Amino acid sequence: MTAILQSPFGTFQGKQSDGITQYLGIKYASVKDQLSPPELTDISGSGLAHQQ
User: Which of 6, 5, 13, 9 is nearest to 43 (CA)?
Assistant: First the structure.
């Protein structure tokens, strides 16, 4: 079974099994090196968003 998550960053499709929903492979931040602050990742066009 699939689950749809609506967020400010887009719509995501997850896999639901045994009462647990998994949203795998979503990159949410990036770090250039160990001491730099994290930066949000632009996920548009990544193929992770659910298409209707």
Answer: 9
Nearest to 49, CA basis, from 17, 21, 8: 8
Q: Closest by alpha carbon to 7, among 35, 25, 34, 26?
A: 26
Longest Cα–Cα distance of the chain, Å, equals: 41
**Do β-strands 10-17 and 29-30 pair in parallel, antiparallel, or remain unpaired?**
unpaired
pLDDT, block means (10 residues), the chain with 52 residues: 83 89 79 76 56 43
What pTM value is reported for the model?
0.47
Q: DSSP character for 20? A: E
